[in-house]
């Protein structure tokens, strides 16, 4: 028997039924129709799995892009050296004055950390990494200046804010030259902005496709049950009562499609996890992929259910009302 005939049609006599019983019967009817609509999906497994698979894979791409962009932002936070400012001090600045400068800068709101590298320490480090070895010892004097390294806070690590901070630091009396790799910083943030816009655009297009897919599936279900809908209207059932099972079908499609999308995203991220780990090792960055927690699952399921209800609602509002007994 079709799900359209299961449940008490609205408009039946209820004069002897109290308010509490009416409320109870309302929820019982909804629960019965929700279970029956799920049973209809079970009775047509191949068609249902095809629709759920299309919805799940449609939601997989924007979800994967969102998680990857989120983790890319996590990586960019570890690349704070991209916005690290190098302050080369004057030759006549003593170590005590340099330490005073470090203390003075460390209380600035725009600065996250300040470190002092003496000329001797810089030369020793250069000797280790350059491979010149004993050749450095033949220098008459140390050619390297004392350097103060300044790391801005995340709020002031953007290209514009970092450039403003650099101009401010150059005005300190101990500073001779200030350096900041603005071009690299601009490239980094430009790539992140492009990734965010691309993820948003693809998400909107695929969400629209999901609504169309569910709407078309519900439309076909309505047309296949045209005769049943006509009989229901002849016995006095309202459009809202007839539409309810189809809305629950859209709900189940959205919920099951969201679960499939979450499983697929988990498999994809697990599959590429090894490659990402090797790639991050080359750049000496620690990456722990996040985004597959309970919060992400809830958001994904909520979004897919909303899309399923929206697609089914747009379809039933139009096609059920068009079916009228002659």
UniProtKB/TrEMBL annotation:
<keyword id="KW-0472">Membrane</keyword>
<comment type="subunit">
    <text>Forms a membrane-associated complex with FtsE.</text>
</comment>
<feature type="domain" description="ABC3 transporter permease C-terminal">
    <location>
        <begin position="201"/>
        <end position="318"/>
    </location>
</feature>
<dbReference type="Pfam" id="PF18075">
    <property type="entry name" value="FtsX_ECD"/>
</dbReference>
<feature type="domain" description="FtsX extracellular">
    <location>
        <begin position="84"/>
        <end position="162"/>
    </location>
</feature>
<feature type="transmembrane region" description="Helical">
    <location>
        <begin position="251"/>
        <end position="274"/>
    </location>
</feature>
<dbReference type="InterPro" id="IPR040690">
    <property type="entry name" value="FtsX_ECD"/>
</dbReference>
<keyword id="KW-1133">Transmembrane helix</keyword>
<dbReference type="InterPro" id="IPR003838">
    <property type="entry name" value="ABC3_permease_C"/>
</dbReference>
<protein>
    <recommendedName>
        <fullName>Cell division protein FtsX</fullName>
    </recommendedName>
</protein>
<comment type="similarity">
    <text>Belongs to the ABC-4 integral membrane protein family. FtsX subfamily.</text>
</comment>
<keyword id="KW-1003">Cell membrane</keyword>
<feature type="transmembrane region" description="Helical">
    <location>
        <begin position="198"/>
        <end position="218"/>
    </location>
</feature>
<dbReference type="InterPro" id="IPR004513">
    <property type="entry name" value="FtsX"/>
</dbReference>
<keyword id="KW-0812">Transmembrane</keyword>
<comment type="function">
    <text>Part of the ABC transporter FtsEX involved in cellular division.</text>
</comment>
<dbReference type="Pfam" id="PF02687">
    <property type="entry name" value="FtsX"/>
</dbReference>
<dbReference type="InterPro" id="IPR047590">
    <property type="entry name" value="FtsX_proteobact-type"/>
</dbReference>
<keyword id="KW-0997">Cell inner membrane</keyword>
<keyword id="KW-0132">Cell division</keyword>
<feature type="transmembrane region" description="Helical">
    <location>
        <begin position="294"/>
        <end position="316"/>
    </location>
</feature>
<keyword id="KW-0131">Cell cycle</keyword>
């Amino acid at each position: 028997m079709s799900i359209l005939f299961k449940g008490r049609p609205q408009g039946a006599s209820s004069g002897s039924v109290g308010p509490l019983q009416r409320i109870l019967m309302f929820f019982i009817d909804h629960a019965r129709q929700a279970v029956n609509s799920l049973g209809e999906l079970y009775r047509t497994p191949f068609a249902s799995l095809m629709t759920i698979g299309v919805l799940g894979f449609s939601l997989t791409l924007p979800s994967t892009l969102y998680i990857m962009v989120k983790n890319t932002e996590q990586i960019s936070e570890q690349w704070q050296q991209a916005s690290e400012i190098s302050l080369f001090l004057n030759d006549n600045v003593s170590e005590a004055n340099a330490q005073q400068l470090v203390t003075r800068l460390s209380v600035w709101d725009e600065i996250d950390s300040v470190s002092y590298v003496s000329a001797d320490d810089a030369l020793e480090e250069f000797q280790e990494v350059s491979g010149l070895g004993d050749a450095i010892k033949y220098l008459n004097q140390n050619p390297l200046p004392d350097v103060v390294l300044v790391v801005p806070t995340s709020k002031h690590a953007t290209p514009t804010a970092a450039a403003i901070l650099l101009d401010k630091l150059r005005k300190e009396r101990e500073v001779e030259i200030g350096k900041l790799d603005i071009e690299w910083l601009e490239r980094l943030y430009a790539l992140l902005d492009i990734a965010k816009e691309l993820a948003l655009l693809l998400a909107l297009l695929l969400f629209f496709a999901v609504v169309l897919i569910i709407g078309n599936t519900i439309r076909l279900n309505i047309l296949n049950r045209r005769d049943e809908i006509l009989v229901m209207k002849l016995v006095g059932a309202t459009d809202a009562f007839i539409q309810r099972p189809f809305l629950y079908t859209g709900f189940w499609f959205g919920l099951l499609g969201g679960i499939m999308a979450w499983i697929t995203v988990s498999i994809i991220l697990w599959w590429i996890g090894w490659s990402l780990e090797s790639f991050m090792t080359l750049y000496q960055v620690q990456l722990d992929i996040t985004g597959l927690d309970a919060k992400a699952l809830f958001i994904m399921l909520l979004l897919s259910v909303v899309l399923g209800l929206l697609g089914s609602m747009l379809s039933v509002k139009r096609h059920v009302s068009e079916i009228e007994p002659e």
